[in-house]
Here is the input.
Amino acid sequence: MITILPESEGNVLVVRATQKLTKRDYEDVFIPKLDQLIQQHGKIRVVMYLDSSFEGWELGAMWDDATFGLKHRNDFERVAVVGGSRWLGWATKLSSHLMEGQVRNYDASSLQEAILWAKQLM
Here is the structure.
């Protein structure tokens, strides 16, 4: 499940991912919100907090994530991924080469630090 957190403001979207992310999570919540922010602000910043119950993505959700990310690779100024396994950190670093913006990984205890980084003016 994806939940939009109250720390979201302006062009910064902060979300919490729990359990297994589904295609419906992307189609009903995440992608519409990203589209809205891109239309309003042009460039956006995203913090995705993978909490301790996070189990990964269903195949449809992974596909939606990848296709949206590639289509909008120039629309992200900053992306922070908080928590998750070590392999996910490597995958995030790999994906950073496919997008224009900055990408950082944070451990699960550093959510506030990631939010501050995302909101920081360049």
